[in-house]
Write a structure and sequence with these properties.
By secondary structure, the protein is mainly α. The chain is built from 26 helices and no strands. Helix 6 packs antiparallel against helix 7 and helix 19 runs antiparallel to helix 20.
Length: 481
């Protein structure tokens, strides 16, 4: 009688979309496999609550132990994929993916590729993604074919061939749309938007980003929605809206913690640190970057830890802790060179230049800034190029090489004009140009006016911090060095 009661309730709850309580009743009715399917449905209908989804997968796995080996394997992959998306995949999970690779088809091979990519092991990630694509083609698995193209684009971006991204992303998007996988389409649109922003095509990037957000919200993907919000905040940071970005970064960090999204937490910490740096809150920036380093180290995410160390180094320089900054930069550079992380290597080169500039070793600073500039030019990232050239001009001038400073500052201004997306330290680029060109006075006024408008919107203590920054003093007072 009791089992009949539980079956009746399970059917009623399931019909109304209440999958988790329905699964509880299926379990009480002694139907383990039906209960497992109920918990799987509950997990897949909880995109805004990934921690609950994870708990449902674990309960389904427990029930599936005595049921169907194929169901158990599918569940394991679902759980491992969720952990991977949240940045929570540990060594045990990575080892289990390797074990499943021979029996679970293309999907497990592509999850391995994504795990390797997340860690920064690009050569093995590339090999695994290509193997996954070949297997997906043999098996006729269109979803895995789409995923393989998406991953190949991501690997090309990180590992030094950003130009190869576009074709892979377009193939991925076409495939996802054909199979009506809106979540996959949203992830691909997000990366397409980022690509067009890096190419300086702001209108196309904005349109793609809006489509990505619409798709993510349509399927109720809370994690992806957070990541797209972080992307938008990065755009506003590039345009100098630092107080807004600081508030948004803290909101994103709280939301990521609620979702259990470690990857989203790392994104938010980076944004928080970068915004705090621009506002002169160097201690606050150091705290944010330090938290990012500790989280990335805990998760064995080498590429993220290296980036966070290079960013913590900049905060340390501002705090006068040059030895700590050098230690972080050595560690970051060693990892980025070993794993071939071309996407972020230029930032570390630039920060090395800034360390030497602040130490007074101007020739060495010039060498590092020009190395950063060559790196950004080769990748077509002209916003970062403009910034590194402007700093190189300052180092050249401090070394007594005025004609070189004049040439570099002119190149910096031209590169910034080619970058409508927004340029880091835009007022500095304008002011450096003005310093070395006879007709540069309008650029100097424009640069100082922008920083003074920013300062006017801050509270008194924040105004004092901003006025003490290297950029503000260089632009408005001419005393940065």
């Amino acid at each position: 009688m009791a089992r009949t009661y539980h079956r009746a309730w399970a059917r009623t709850l399931e019909a109304h979309g209440h999958y988790a309580p329905a699964a509880e009743h299926w379990q009480e009715a002694g139907l383990a496999e039906r209960a497992a399917q109920g918990f799987i449905a509950a997990a897949r209908h909880a995109p805004y609550d990934p921690l609950s989804a994870r708990a449902y997968y674990l309960r389904a796995l427990h029930l599936a132990e005595a049921v169907d080996p194929r169901l158990r394997q599918e569940l394991e992959l679902d759980l491992l994929e969720l952990d991977l998306r949240l940045g929570r995949l540990d060594e045990t999970g990575r080892e289990r993916l390797e074990q499943l690779a021979e029996t679970a088809g293309a999907r497990s091979r592509l999850l391995i590729a994504e795990a390797l990519l997340q860690r920064g092991d690009y050569p093995r990630a590339l090999a695994s993604a290509r193997a996954g694509l070949a297997r997906a083609l043999r098996e006729g698995d269109r979803a895995c074919q789409a995923r393989a193209h998406f991953l190949l684009a991501w690997i090309y971006y990180r590992h030094g061939d950003p130009g190869a991204q576009l074709a892979e992303l377009e193939q991925a998007l076409d495939a996802y749309l054909q199979i009506e996988d809106h979540q996959g389409a949203a992830r691909t649109l997000r990366n397409l938007a980022a690509l067009y922003f890096r190419l300086g095509e702001k209108e196309t990037g904005d349109a793609l980003q809006a489509r990505a957000l619409e798709e993510a919200e349509t399927v109720g993907d809370g994690v992806l929605t957070l990541r797209i919000r972080a992307d938008r905040a990065t755009g506003r940071w590039l345009r100098g809206e630092f107080p807004w970005v600081l508030r948004e970064a803290r909101a994103l960090r709280r939301a990521a913690r609620r979702l259990g999204d470690y990857g989203g937490e790392l994104d938010a910490l980076e944004l928080e640190g970068l915004a705090a740096l621009k506002l002169g809150d160097h201690a606050g920036a150091h705290r944010a970057f330090d938290a990012a380093v500790r989280r990335a180290d805990e998760l064995h995410l080498e590429k993220d830890a290296a980036l966070a160390r290079s960013e913590r180094a900049w905060a340390s320089i501002e705090l006068g802790a040059f030895a700590e900054a050098e230690s972080d930069l050595r560690a970051a550079l060693a990892v980025q060179r070993r794993i071939g992380d071309q996407a972020k290597l230029g930032h570390t080169y630039h920060t090395w230049g800034y360390l030497h500039l602040r130490r007074g070793d101007h020739e060495e600073a010039l060498r590092w800034f020009r190395r950063a500039a060559r790196h950004w030019r080769a990748r077509g990232e002209r916003g970062h190029l403009a910034r590194s050239l402007a700093y190189a001009a300052l180092a050249a001038a401090a070394s007594g090489r005025t004609r070189l400073a004049q040439r570099l500052s002119g190149e910096a201004l031209r590169a910034s004009h080619d970058w409508p997306v927004g340029v880091p330290d835009r007022p500095l680029i304008w002011a450096v140009y003005a310093r070395f060109h006879a007709r540069g006075a309008p650029w100097s006024r424009k640069a100082c006016d922008e920083l003074r408008r920013l300062r006017a919107g801050l509270r008194p203590a924040a105004r004092r911090r901003l006025a003490a920054t290297f950029v503000y003093r260089t632009v408005c007072e001419g005393t940065g060095l």
